[in-house]
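@channel sequence for tomorrow's demo:
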Amino acid sequence: MSLSSQQTREFAEKGHLTVAGVFTDAEMDRATADAQDWAAETLAALPADQRAWYVERGTGDGQLLRKLDNPVAHREVFRALAGKPALTDLVRGIVGAPIKVYFSQIFFKPPGGGGPKPVHQDNYYFGPSSRDGMVTAWIALDDADVENGCLYYGDGTNLGPVYDHIAPEDKPFDLQIPAEKADRHPMTPAPVARGGVSFHHGNTLHQSSDNRSDRWRRACAVHYVNADTVFANPALPYDASLVVDID
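structure tokens (generated this afternoon):
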């Protein structure tokens, strides 16, 4: 699987691209089962001082995770997803080769309670040494649509600057672009079916809404960089010992 010339142009112009059918239903079944097992293990052992970072608010008993970090480094199932040639060939078409996974996340967004993620840019979070050297591959573990909280993108914002971000006092992990700047950029939904991948440039403004459905909206975000790119000026700490070489 490789990018067509049209897909390459679309990514360059819009800053994002959705590709369907990268993974099979069986691969998504294994991934979601492993994610739920890992979530249960993690929640049972989660220290009190980390609950604000990882536990989803507004879900009643507070026993659902919002996210987990570095599944590609810690879980064999997700390492296999990140290294699948159907995905990595597409990644190389965007950032070049060789590639490595610098960071990864699982987002759970449970039914009826998964909260929104405000407008932000990955290049602010990660501070890569090259503005074009990183791409995020957002793997849809479930169907993602407007009702259950799919991503929204600001088309063409990949061509603009990285804005300063702020965070609410009680959510230091929730770095976001101030509303007066974010509101200048219309956001359009990018639904993606289970097993598809939504790619976005590190400068592209994006957000997700809350999950208003009775369905899960789980996803795995894999942040790839090329060989010449590192997280040189990150806004949050990242452990370089967990970087996974693909090539």
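heads up for whoever presents: The longest helix spans residues 25-45.
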